[in-house]
Amino acid sequence: MNPPNLAGPLVAAAALAVVPARGGVTMLPPVPDAIGFAGAFAGVHEGQLIAGGGANFPDGTMPWDGGKKVWHDRLFALDLKEAGAAWREVGKLPVANGYGVSLTVPEGVLVIGGGDAKENFREVRLLTLVDGRPAFRELAGLPVPLAQMVGAVTGRRVHVCGGIEKPDATAASNGHWMLDLDAMDRGWQTMPSLPGEGRILATAAGIGDAFFIAGGCSLAADATGKPVRTYLREAWKFDEGKWQRIADLPRGSVAAATPAPVRGDAFFVVSGDDGTHVGPPKEHRGFSREVLRYDVPANEWSVAEQLDVPAPVTLPAVPWRDGFILFNGEVKPGVRTPQVLYFTPPEPKP
């Protein structure tokens, strides 16, 4: 695939200093952290990309070598409208937090749930920037604490599905909740549960009034009581009050960018852990560089393209102009990246 046109919508609108890369992405300025973050929150408010939280291994020691995972509260902002803009650190989340759901809505950035090493959270906040500093509005909390769930917006409705209530859970939820942004006094409404297995780290998408969820993994306890993952290829559509199973993913996909980038009547699963690597984590080759396209009217999956950059997982996708910003993530087990990508969903192949 040819490099994206740097005179296209992103640069024309944002005038950022960018570096071209093949595979449907443009490199934005990396976040000012040498390691980067997985499971961060990110969204856009009034042309400002706000991102932060998540977790990493700050001393570089991986977990299988005794490294300690650390959750963060730092928040950064990047002016997407300013020529040559640079990241700046603007403040902190109320608590160190990661692996929740972040969604861009007209009012700001929704920061939903998440957790740390000890507990998962119910809190839901609307994040904005006021005079360059983060401001938080407390919204109705989730019915249960959740992390590693997924969410997406359909019109003015926010859907959340799946996840785990405790960090050491050995079973994942198939629960499904909805918050109407025009009737927030009603709080989170319990919706029909996902008919498939409970799951974590799936991919969600919103197209029109339909909410989609694909892939992820279920959990079960092993003989020692520790959680074991089963990779799932099921995909589902929720519309008009009911779930419908749609075509299975062509491969496993855990922790792909979410909510999924959307173009027209299609959504895209960018990267994801396909579960094919079963050797020692230090010998991991990296995650899938495939970008899968789901065509809603045809109910078909196809390979849209291949990324030509290290493929990230456990990361948020943020809509901006004609594309989506992919913030940081994990490029190998335990290995974070400070990279920030701008992904332009490709046109369907003729």
TrEMBL record:
Signal peptide: none
InterPro entries in alphabetical order: Gal_Oxase/kelch_b-propeller (IPR011043), Kelch-typ_b-propeller (IPR015915), NANM (IPR056734)
Pfam families, per the entry: NANM (PF24996)
Origin: domain of life: Bacteria
SUPFAM superfamilies per record: Galactose oxidase, central domain
Protein name listed in UniProt: Galactose oxidase
